[in-house]
Amino acid sequence: MECSMAETYDILVIGGGPGGYNCAIRAGQLGLKVGCIETRKTLGGTCLNVGCIPSKALLHATEMLETAEKHFDGMGITTGKIGFDLGKMMAAKEKTVSGLTDGIKYLFKKNKVDHIEGFGKIIDAQTVDVDGKTYKTKNIVIATGSEVATLPGIEIDETRIVSSTGALELKEVPKKLLVIGGGVIGLELGSVWRRLGAEVTVVEYLDHIMPGMDGEVQKQALRIFKKQKMKFELGRKVTGIDNSKKSGLKVQTEASAGGSPKDIDADVVLVCIGRRPFTDNLGLDGVGVATDKRGFIETDHYKTSVPGIFAVGDCTVGPMLAHKAEDEGVAAAEIIAGKAGHVNYDVIPGVVYTAPEIASVGKTEEDLKAAGVPYKKGKFPFSANSRARANHATDGFVKILAHAETDEILGVHMIGAHVGDLIAEVCVAMEFRAASEDIARTCHAHPTITEAVRQAAMDVEGWTMQM
To answer: Does the structure show a pLDDT above 80 at 314?
Structure first.
């Protein structure tokens, strides 16, 4: 192998996604010599290039389209014929992505971070090979993220049988789209193509959508999505796909408990059954980095089993969320620099960017019941919120769970317009271990949808001003 440089890095980060690039930038800010290894020519990882950002661009565009088509008239707004140009919509999405990847490139330059293109493989705790060249370092941070989980016997071709990546690049709207998996990604991308005219059917192995979410949120979300004409086959698993014909697919399913076979026709199938850690071919076994049976790297405060090697983000155990990876990347850089890096895993929000949005943080009622934690709850519907009614966005509610004895906020669950932004308020409150009364007695501007959060907090003690 050719040694690329005599000078040793303080940190080599493997992976340029949210965990990796935030780790690299923070390390650069702290005065460390940093290199970030990334296989793509652009930085940002799956999230920015083929995940979070492009999907949100399409979600926003199609939500505006549906609002114009279905709701303008009721608000007294008259327009000509509403339509869309899929090519221009995709181009706008790509413009958003390129602008953000260029932004990370600028931040690397500003903070003196070297972008090393290629595939990184760990040789030892001080050496990383990148496509035949070796780089020396004092510390290694693995931030390789995750990849699409696949179903046995089903080959993703990114044309007719697609992953989330292929679903963001379809050249035309399918007449029938079948989504395998009723989780976040499937519901978001299913919403995009439904708004553009596809008949969308979601097949989910469990008897409910969005596993792990609050039960009330799951039920109301399902009712809303059905009202939007999205179809659901719950308690059903996909056993195969017949793609022998040039056009059209036949998806073979059966009841999850066994029996009751059913074939469903589709033009495109989107496989969204989750993601798995990307840890193959990194040289982990050769240097003794421990992983669990699912391939996740085992860590203790981001330290792996090998001194000098750290890991953050989706390749480690925990929620596969970009913001969780970002915080871990920053914390790892700070620890390496001798500072006290920290992430509060009890306050990591999750958001589903459907319409309406869904957001949660902390414990669900199901969690608290299972753990035997005494709790009280407050709930407030958006139908009773002045601004939501003025905005014609009355679906959903805010629910706050607080400890029955101390009143500390333990969890908050919302479904409604803009709740992905509203959740930040309770995250700040929970970070400071606030009580529900702290929010209830904090003045909120009127009329705003944020008042729904305050009213839910007031309802914990039964003094909400609900209409």
So the answer is: yes
Query: How many CB atoms are closer than 10 A to CB 387?
Result: 18
CATH 3.50.50.60 in the chain is located at: 2-147+276-336, 161-273
The Cα–Cα gap between 27 and 36 comes to 11
Low-confidence winner among 1-15, 91-105, 306-320, 380-394 (lowest mean pLDDT): 1-15
Q: Is the pTM of this model over 0.70?
A: yes
CATH number 2.60.40.10 given to 2-147+276-336: no
CATH fold label, 350-460: Enolase-like; domain 1 (3.30.390)
Question: H or E stretch including 410?
Answer: strand 409-416
Tell me the sheet residues that pair with 255.
236
For the question of residue 446 being annotated catalytic, the response is yes
Q: Check if the beta carbon of residue 269 is closer than 8 Å to that of residue 200.
A: no
Q: Which residue in the list 71, 342, 392, 446 is annotated as catalytic?
A: 446
Q: How far is CA 112 from the centre of its chain?
A: 29
CATH of domain 161-273: 3.50.50.60
Would you list the DSSP string of 319-382?
---HHHHHHHHHHHHHHHTTS-----TTS--EEE-SSSEEEEEE--HHHHHHHT--EEEEEEEG
pLDDT value of residue 246: 87
